[in-house]
Structure formats: structure tokens, C-alpha cells
Design goal:
The protein is an all-alpha fold and 395 residues long. The chain is built from 22 helices and no strands. It has helices at 15-21, 24-38, 42-52, 59-75, 79-92, 97-113, 117-130, 137-149, 153-165, 172-184, 188-201, 206-218, 222-234, 241-253, 257-270, 277-289, 293-306, 310-322, 326-339, 345-357, 361-371, 378-391. It is rod-shaped and about 130 Å long. The protein starts with 14 loop residues before the first helix and ends with a helix.
Length: 395
């Protein structure tokens, strides 16, 4: 994860303090390196430091050489090599306490860059224990990210919470990491609370509302899912095709089909929804459940123009029968029977009833005879035949 910001200050002590702690020869060798680093001649500084690494006589000087080699490698974005040199400097344990402590944070950051997550966590926690007053929101974020990379989701919560609380308005990604940590543990209520906190800061982002609805569904709270989907829809935040479909489906589940139909009609009118089979099936289902026969007929006629099936034709016929549109129902039933691949008893029964209403008695009788062959429909079909015998006895 090379996007982590590495802030490693050149920790070579001032000439006066270094001179007081180093042999003269070691001091001069190190000052040559300092001049090259100051001039940003990193390749030359690296070569010089490497050449003097075995020449310096004191342990303190060796630690400074390794430390500066590490810093040069950071400047050159050679992080693996930098990690090795800074590790050497830290292991010698002769640098001033402040420098030793700062090295812990540098080692943590470099281990994160190299995706050595456990080492990153270890060094960072050590540094935080030593410097509790210096820990920033970004430091806690780094620890939380490292834990997330090792999928220690329960450990993510505390540092990411501290990171979020350190800011008046924390970045979206910080909240999202906390939501993910709760979700990976199936702590849906906690994830929902954090997602709502995120939305309170970034209410105009459709993705945040969709995530909230998804979390409600994971928690099996369909009522809350519908409420938040509807709020975002009415605010104009959720306006894509799937948003219309999901809202309509949830309204149907909640047994408010009339509003589902209205949502889909708005989508079609606005051009967000195409009059394809999926949309028209959902629209016709809405109006059928709402017992809006005229609207159902219109939707089903549209559907059967686009993608006719035996089922959709049968639904249209029933809606036409409800409206006593007998001629239209007869035509639709004939289409359904022609397209039928299986048993036709129910369709023939409806066709027989429709033909009776149209006074096509001979054709009605033929349809009812076919319907009576279905054991489940035999009684109903024979009842209509008896009625037919009364109003139009057979010749």
C-alpha cells in the first residue's frame, strides 16, 4: 500500500551535538554525507555512506550511518532497502531516545508500505504506547487499515473510532472502513448506526443510501429498508433504474402495490426506465395486486406487445374478464392457448366462460368439454356446462 504518507525527518543531530559525541574522523565522514543529502544528491550520498559504513569506529556512528542510509533510500522510494537500514539503526539502540522512538513510527510505516502488516501493527502500537500525546487521527487510521489487511476486524473498531472522533468531519473512507469492520462481524445494527452517521455528513451520495438499505436487508429489517429507500428516492438522491425497481419490489413486499405502480410509472415517464419485460412485469404485478383492473390491462397489453408469455396472456385475460371486456378476453385466451406448451384446462375454462358471455354457446361447450378433462377443474367445468344446458340446450 504505497499510498501511505511517509514522513521521516532527517534525524542526524546538529554538528555541535554530533561533534561532542563522535570521534573527529567519524564526525567528518558523516558531515560529508550530510552535505550531499542537503544538496539532494542522494545517489552520491548513498555511495558515500555505504563506503564509510565499515570505516566509522563508534557504535553511535554506525547507527547514524544506517539511519541516514535508510532515509536516503526513502527519498529514492526504495522502501524495502530503507526498512533494512532503519531496522539496523534501531537494533543498535544507541540513538537518542527521541530518535529511537521516531524510528518505531518510521518502521511501522515502511512495513505497511511493504505489506508486512503484523510488523507494521507491532511497531505502531509500540510507538503509540511511548508517545500517546502525539498520536493523530491518521496514525489511528493506519493501525486500523493494517488490522483490516490481516482481517482482524474486531481490532479495527477502536482505532478507526478514535480516528473518526479526532475530526469534526471525518473523510468518507474512514466511516466506510468502520462500517466494513462491523459488517464482516455481522454486527448489522452497529454497521447501520455508522452508515447513518456517514449519511448525516454526506447525504447527497447515492452509494451511501444504497449501502444503508443493503445493511437493513442484511439485518432482515425490511420496514427500515423501505423507509430509507423511499426517503432517498423522494429526495431525488436515488434515481437510477435499479433504484426504481428495488423501491417498487419493497413496496409490493410491504403490501402497498398502488404506490409501487406509481413509482414505476414515474420512472417510465421520466425515461429512467425502459418499457422492457422486467419493468412491465413489475408494473402489471403492481396494478393486479392493487386491483386496478384498467391499469393492469394497460400494463399487461404493453407487456404482451413486448414479451408475450402464456402466463402474461392469462393474466391479461383475467384482467379483461374483470372489466367484462369479453371480446378482448376471448382473443387473448386464444393467443394464450396457441402459445401454451402444457395443460390448457384453466385457459379452456376461462375461454368457455367468456364465450358464454358472448353467447357463442357451441364454441363455449367445446372449450368446457376440454376443461373438464382436467381432474382439478372437472367440477367447475361441469357446473358451467349445466348452466349452458339451461340457457342453450344442446341440439
Amino acid at each position: 500500500m504505497r499510498h501511505f504518507l511517509i514522513i521521516i525527518l532527517l534525524l542526524l543531530a546538529s554538528p555541535v551535538s554530533v561533534a561532542s559525541q563522535l570521534p573527529q574522523r567519524d564526525y567528518q565522514l558523516l558531515m560529508q554525507a550530510s552535505d550531499l543529502i542537503g544538496a539532494e544528491k542522494y545517489a552520491e550520498a548513498y555511495a558515500h555512506l555505504l563506503s564509510v559504513k565499515e570505516k566509522v569506529s563508534s557504535t553511535y556512528a554506525r547507527a547514524l550511518v544506517s539511519h541516514n542510509l535508510g532515509q536516503v533510500e526513502v527519498k529514492r522510494e526504495r522502501y524495502k532497502q530503507a526498512l533494512g537500514y532503519l531496522g539496523e539503526a534501531y537494533a543498535l539502540n544507541v540513538l537518542p531516545r527521541g530518535q529511537q522512538t521516531s524510528l518505531l513510527k518510521s518502521l511501522a510505516q515502511l512495513n505497511c508500505i511493504e505489506e508486512q502488516w503484523e510488523d507494521c501493527i507491532g511497531y505502531l502500537k509500540q510507538w503509540m504506547l511511548k508517545m500517546p500525546d502525539n498520536v493523530s487521527g491518521e496514525d489511528n487510521l493506519l493501525l486500523a487499515q493494517a488490522y483490516s489487511q490481516t482481517e482482524q476486524w474486531s481490532e479495527v473498531i477502536s482505532p478507526i473510532s478514535r480516528a473518526i472522533d479526532s475530526r469534526e468531519v471525518a473523510p468518507e473512507s474512514w466511516h466506510q472502513l468502520k462500517v466494513i469492520a462491523h459488517s464482516r462481524q455481522s454486527h448489522w445494527r452497529a454497521a447501520i448506526r455508522e452508515q447513518k452517521r456517514l449519511i448525516s455528513r454526506y447525504a447527497d451520495r447515492p452509494g451511501h443510501w444504497r449501502q444503508l438499505v443493503s445493511l437493513h436487508l442484511q439485518a432482515k429489517d425490511h420496514k427500515a429498508a423501505l423507509a430509507d429507500q423511499r426517503i432517498a428516492f423522494e429526495r431525488g438522491v436515488l434515481r437510477e433504474r435499479n433504484d426504481y425497481h428495488l423501491l417498487a419490489q419493497m413496496m409490493l413486499r410491504a403490501q402497498i402495490p398502488y404506490f409501487a405502480g406509481q413509482v414505476l410509472e414515474k420512472g417510465l415517464a421520466r425515461g429512467v426506465l425502459e418499457p422492457d419485460a422486467k419493468t412491465l412485469r413489475l408494473l402489471s404485478r403492481s396494478w393486479i395486486q392493487a386491483r386496478e383492473s384498467t391499469k393492469a390491462v394497460n400494463a399487461l397489453e404493453w407487456l404482451n406487445d413486448v414479451a408475450p408469455t402464456e402466463q402474461s396472456l392469462a393474466q391479461l385475460a383475467r384482467a379483461q374478464i374483470d372489466l367484462q371486456k369479453w371480446s378482448a378476453a376471448q382473443h387473448t385466451l386464444q393467443r394464450a392457448i396457441e402459445s401454451s406448451q402444457g395443460e390448457q384446462g384453466q385457459l379452456q375454462l376461462l375461454l368457455g366462460i367468456t364465450r358464454i358471455k358472448l353467447k357463442h354457446y357451441d364454441k363455449a361447450r367445446k372449450a368446457l368439454v376440454v376443461a373438464a378433462k382436467d381432474k382439478q377443474l372437472k367440477t367447475a367445468a361441469e357446473g358451467w356446462v349445466s348452466y349452458l344446458d339451461q340457457i342453450s340446450p344442446p341440439a
